[in-house]
Amino acid sequence: MNSNQGPQAVRRGRPRQADVARAAGVSQTTVSLVLGGNKQGIVLQEATRERVLEAARSLGYVPDPAARSLATARNSLMGVFSFTATFPTDVQHSYYPLLVGVEQEAAAQGYDLVLFTGSSASGPEATTPEALDRVRLADGCLFLGRHIPSRELRRLVDDGYPAVHLGRRDELEGLAWVGADYVSASADVVRRLAEAGHRRIVLVREDDDAPASTDRERGFLEGLEAAGLPGGPAAVVRTAEPAAQITAERIRAWRAEGITAFVAEETDTGGAWRALLGAVGAAGLTAPEHLSLALLGSPPADLAAGPEPTGFDVPRTELGATAVRLLVSVMSGEDLKPPEPLVSCAFRAGTTAGPPPPAGG
């Protein structure tokens, strides 16, 4: 007799609903009703329900996630797609706390995360429609990145796919987003420099139109205006090559013009901040003894051990968690009330800014 036949045969692998039905002495339809929560409201005897549940426990039955997703059109997977070169693993990287917030809140909301990284190696320029289409494996997706492929992302949104961008993206109508309040935080840094006695302040930023950069510049200029200080184009230096254009000679020239405080924006590369630090050092100057430096954000990971820059901290863990909660709302079809939430940034006193040096100092 074949040992794999007969009522005593043991099936290898994951227990199926048919196995639970045999163990409980009921039909597979009854097992499906009980284990599915009986959403149809069919009358079942309590003893039958308990027998099915006990059989499922004893056999170690767990629902097949693929079958469940087919039945519900949901699979409890939340995607995360980065347009940066790689997903960072360094705990000092600016994205690390953001991803921590995403992971913690996704777990609290009952979602597993799927990281889509296959097309991020060359940035948004290499992203194809097919690359973004992979995110449809998840119920919804969070997108991260300073620059994004607007056309491909718009197509997802137009198709009704639940998407949330981490960072302001109001140029894409219909795309939900969560961002930091860079405008208020940048204006606050300028206010504090003005209160310390600085009358001429310059912002160094990268030459692009990323929303994070434009928000910081807007806040910087609003801070100058509120303090009654000179603003306009002369107060902002946009540079495509900070290391080449922010030099010791230029720092000396600025100081000769009466500029006593310099502000840099935070970016993925930290180019503006690196250039300022390098130029100040090459000029034989130190902060805050000879001039003041401020950073609108956090320093790059490899400079974190240096002097703590005056500026503000972006609450990245809170941003990540807020984005997950917003995505859950989008996936559930809740109506959103624009504008999307802005998360406040906390001022960081740091050690690189102080009162301006005495005249001729």
Automatic annotation (TrEMBL):
**What positions does the domain HTH lacI-type occupy?**
15-72
Q: What superkingdom heads the lineage? A: Bacteria
Identify the Gene3D superfamilies for this entry: 3.40.50.2300, lambda repressor-like DNA-binding domains
Q: InterPro entries of this UniProt entry? A: HTH_LacI, LacI/GalR-like_sensor, Lambda_DNA-bd_dom_sf, Peripla_BP_I
User: Pfam families of this UniProt entry?
Assistant: LacI (PF00356), Peripla_BP_3 (PF13377)
Keywords in alphabetical order, please.
DNA-binding, Repressor, Transcription, Transcription regulation
Q: Which CDD domains match?
A: HTH_LacI, PBP1_LacI_sugar_binding-like
Under the heading SUPFAM superfamilies, the entry gives: lambda repressor-like DNA-binding domains (SSF47413), Periplasmic binding protein-like I (SSF53822)
User: What is the phylogenetic placement of the source species in the record?
Assistant: Bacteria, Bacillati, Actinomycetota, Actinomycetes, Kitasatosporales
Among SMART domains, the record links this protein to:
HTH_LACI (SM00354)
Annotated protein name in UniProt: LacI family transcriptional regulator
Stored PROSITE patterns: HTH_LACI_2
